[in-house]
Amino acid sequence: MSVLMISLLFALLGAILFTLIGLVSGTDETAIMVPFTLLVILLGAPPEAVLSFFMAAVLAKHLTHAIPTALMGIPGDTTAVPLIDHASSLRRLGVPHVALRKMLSGGLLGAFIALPTAVLFGQFLGQFADFFKSASGLIFTLAAVLIAYFSKGKWVSIAMIIPFAFFIKSLDQFSFQIVEKHLSISFFLGIAIGPMFYDLLLSLSSSGRASLVRTKPKEYHLAPEIRAWKGFFPNPFRVLTGRQAAHTSVTSFISSLTFAFSPVGMTSLMGEIVGSRNKGVYKKSTSSLAAMNGVTESTYIAEAIIPLLAFGIPLSPVALGPAAPLFNAPPVFTSDPVNNLHNLLTPWDFFLYGLIGLVVAAIIAYPFAMNYARTATVFVMKNISQEAIVGMFVGLACLLAFHEAQLVGVILTLTMATVGGLINRVLGVGAGVQFMIFYGAGYMMTNLLGA
Amino acid sequence: METKVASTEKQTGKSNETYLEVLGDTVVPSSILLSVVISMTFSIGGYFVGKSIFPSIAEPKMVASYSLLLGIAGSVLALILCAKLFKPSRILKEEESSVESFQEILRDMQVDAKEEYQLIVNDPVTRKEMEELGILDTFKKSGVQSDK
Q1: Which residues of B touch A279 (CB under 8 A)?
Q2: Euclidean distance between CA atoms A388 and B81, whole angstroms
Q3: Residue A181, SS3?
Q4: 3-class secondary-structure state, position A428
């Protein structure tokens, strides 16, 4: 089978899988993207197909995540948090379907602007790649400090850098003694499922349990559906007004260049700017939603592609979270020395196979979300329990860890999840900071302790 | 007054079991534990089965990948099984479109209904869009009402 066909198939797989996952609200994107992307890589998919899969997954997941955001007023994932205010205004005004349509169209537009922009910009930055690669340890350390400062924990996150690096390096040394290879997937997974695992642990603790106890099931309010368009594939340029399309395009373009910033931060910022330029609740909310969803899409895509294409080392919040396996998934991909999509694909490949992913996802997720939003939400809410979902992710993480290093891998993952989850939830040291520390741990310990 | 509060407390305490909030949704404590155990057993179990049967039927270098696939199949199976075993503990309320009066909502959002309507009417693009969606009338009504 040709690489093109395989890529198409993987894009299809990513689009279908993540269209469904997107319906589950409140899912943490790192905890979900990391295991599935790792699976695709470890199963031996060619690098082109891995990229198509990832792009399709990102777009599909974001498009369907607009459904719970618009119809129920709960954020589909963390990047949807800044959209909640405008989405609930429109929901209360009885037009959640308008909010949904604007978000979907904006997202689609943002994605297709981000890809070429990111490829071109990545290529331009590529000339500095040698410098970045040779200084990667130092860069990771500095980036850890910077990201830590902007995380929820702020100063505590910074204070945790050295101890956490020490902790990681110790686990690394000990597991190396047993299995005679340096593990990384197990570390990753631990950091990724940390917050989920923390909740599970807390529920088992007789002292901590009280904070999680609820006396009745969570209530969800689902808005009624008013179908107001004809055909199966509504044209995004007809859904958006000309002005909205222009605002969405400009903000998506700008946020494709700011790949080192947090997607949530960029989304809030761009939303504010667009909101301030439109008057009236209806117009302000619809315009902001379109632009913001475009920005979440474009930052995601650009933050994955630019560091990958330019440096091959993960230097953005997305690259350190959901896209981490594209950089580092030993034995297939490694970032030190760089052997990943960076050197395996040409810029043209990045564009072509990225586009395949986006187009396939657009064909599947966009009409699905436009036409079946409500039906699908009701099905998921009524049939798929949270128990089953959490169970599956813990199971998948353990499976992958076991695949990397048998029991050592599983124990390492659970240890990382415990410590990572605790400092994430209690101290506010986010997953991005933890990933950065993981990358910089070797450099820090060598220079600090001569280890 | 006091008795009323006490009685409702009693009711909620008696009527159902307690739930835990995990990752933003409520779960039944015993179910979540079982679900994690089932899922881990199925996925790693599938991997083990693969490791023991594939060496005889597949190329040596593919054994690990195939076993991984079988492990994934196991975890998907676990997802379906757990979804069947443990029903979601959520309350789904399907809202009517006009629960609150339109004007009250606008007032609550600190928006002047008249001004909002004027802004819409004076902007041909937005007005046309809302006409096509059939929602202009709602805004119009509240805009005219507050005018009186």
Answers
A1: 119
A2: 8
A3: coil
A4: coil
How far does B93 lie from chain A, in Å, by closest CA?
5
> DSSP code of A180?
S
A24 burial (CB, 10 Å; 0-12 / 13-18 / 19+) is buried
Four-residue CA torsion sign, A385, A386, A387, A389: positive
CA A115 from chain centre, in angstroms, equals 16
Contact list in B for residue A403 (CB cut-off 8 A) is: 47, 64, 67-68, 71
Q: Is the pLDDT of residue B99 over 70?
A: no
* A386 to B26: CB separation less than 8 angstroms, yes or no: yes
Q: Which of A199, A388, A396 sits opposite B43 (nearest CB)?
A: A396
Does an H or E element contain A25, and which?
none
Using DSSP's 3-state secondary structure scheme, residue B101 falls into coil
Lowest mean pLDDT among A135-144, A391-400, B81-90: A135-144
Chain A CA closest to residue B29: A203
Q: Which positions ≥6 away from A349 have C-beta within 8 Å?
A: A48, A51
Minimal-distance CA residue of chain B relative to A401: B44
The C-alpha atoms of residue A367 and residue A359 are separated, in whole angstroms, by: 12
Cβ of B40 under 8 Å from any chain A Cβ?
Answer: yes
pLDDT for A163: 96
- Reading the block at residue B138, the tokens are 């709602």
Using the structure block, give the residue that is written with the tokens 């054994």: B63
| Of A6 and A219, more confident | A6
Kindly list the residues from chain B whose CB atom is less than 8 angstroms away from the CB atom of residue A219.
90-93
**CB < 8 Å to B61, chain A:** none
| ipTM exceeding 0.85, yes/no | no
Residue B52 contacts A where some CB pair is shorter than 8 Å: no
> Distances from the Cα of A126 to the Cαs of A54, A329, A352, in angstroms?
22, 22, 18
Please check the confidence at residue A403 and state whether its pLDDT lies above 90: no
- Which range has the worst mean pLDDT, A15-24, A56-65, A164-173? A15-24
Q: Residue ranges per domain, chain B?
A: 17-85, 102-147
Q: What is the tens place of the pLDDT at every residue in A136-174?
A: 788 888 888 887 887 788 899 999 999 999 999 999 999
* Confidence at A317, pLDDT banded by 50, 70, 90: confident
Three state DSSP letters for B23-78: CCEEECHHHHHHHHHHHHHHHHHHHHHHHHHHHHHCCHHHHHHHHHHHHHHHHHHH
**Cα A147 to Cα A44, A144, A361, A419, B15, distances in angstroms:** 33, 5, 31, 19, 47
CA distance A124 to chain B (A): 37
- In chain B, how many H helices and how many E strands? 7, 3
Q: Establish if B136 touches chain A: CB-CB under 8 angstroms.
A: no
Of A230, A353, A258, A244, the closest CA to residue A293 belongs to A244
